[in-house]
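Let us begin with a simple case.
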Amino acid sequence: MKDLIQIFKKNNGYARMIEMKEAGIHTRNIARAVDEGIIEKIKPGLYKLVNYPWDENGSYADVCNANKKAVICLLSAASYYEITTFNPSEIYVAVPNNTDKFILKYPPIHVYYFSDRYYKSGIDIIKTKSGSIRIYNKEKTIGDLFRYMNKLGEDIAVESLKEYLRDRKNRNISQLLEYSEICGVKKKIEPMIKAILSWRKKVK
């Protein structure tokens, strides 16, 4: 098992079936490692080392490793940035419209298929102890939350906007408006920004 574990450690805790076979690891030993809880199957052909120093972003890294086009979005991105108090039980992930059906054994995911206009803009790559994750930036996340407001709830979208605007040091209102226009929700967000900022001036 030592040889098997070394393969995973060289790849930041992940390994594909083809990599293990090429290293001379028999499928029988791979199956035994799964049964013994040494490694865990994420999807067909992709595994992770269970006893690895994962951080709190491990599940996000699992999703991004399972599909190189996957981008953490909506409620999961808002939770990552701490602009919502909602803690989703699934990982919300976006992939392009023409992507094959994206299914994972673990972690549970909620997949959204975005057209190019909504998919391509605002993607950040963040390095974590669990590996790199692809995630929409704060401004694009808020735009998407307003775009899906009827499905995900107005309260979450407004809460995220308020929390974003509260951070005077890091907020970028012109960028927020830019992404809200890309998401087709500028007419909804712009008056809310003015109302929230105006109210805060009055209560000071």
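The second case is a distinct protein. As before, the sequence precedes its structure tokens.
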Amino acid sequence: MTAASQPYALRTSNDQDLARRMARGDARALEELMRIYNRRLFRTARAILRDDAAAEDTLQEAYLRAYSSIGQFRGEAQLSTWLVRIVANEALARRRKEARRAEVLPIVPGAAQEDSMDQSDGPQRKAERAEIRRLLEEKIDALPDGYRAVFVLRALEELSVEETAAALDIPAATVRTRFFRARSQLREALSREVDLAFDDAFGFAGERCDRIVARVMAIVAAGTAA
């Protein structure tokens, strides 16, 4: 089992050590952290931006910001919560920037549409399961902005209400309400097929995971050499 696929409960004892090593400039600690949290943080950015490429770019910037500001992490919250907040802030800032740009530049119909299926899936993937996953991602993308990130963190990443509230900086009551309404909307759209695809939605493994790690590590290495 790889670090990226290990249950979160098996990794929490390493968070403080990772933070201390990163604060000392240990680039390998950064790589380990990325392997652990790539999927969760990608899903967070993707939920806000609804675009794979934009989410990857946001994730890269968020990791670099986290690496440069790790000294500010005091351990008052979980490291994962601190990271999710950084990613969410980066994604929201990007979305605001894109919204301002859209007011000036015309949008070419269909230009932002991409196939969100993970191309790393092997031939053994059942066609039915792939279709369910596609439908799930499509319906999650269609959720209102305020509901989407809450749903991804609560249902896909299984964060608690309190963790989600802290990560998104909203009241716990708001998390409960939005999650309930989001789940109701999805169940109405997909009925009993929804739960079958949670584990695979917005996958971030294999080549895609390696690409983000390699890009961030190259930038860190270049900065160290300079």
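The chain has one domain: 12-104+126-225. Confidence is low (pLDDT under 50) at residues 1-13, 104-120.
Keep these points in mind for the review questions at the end of the chapter.
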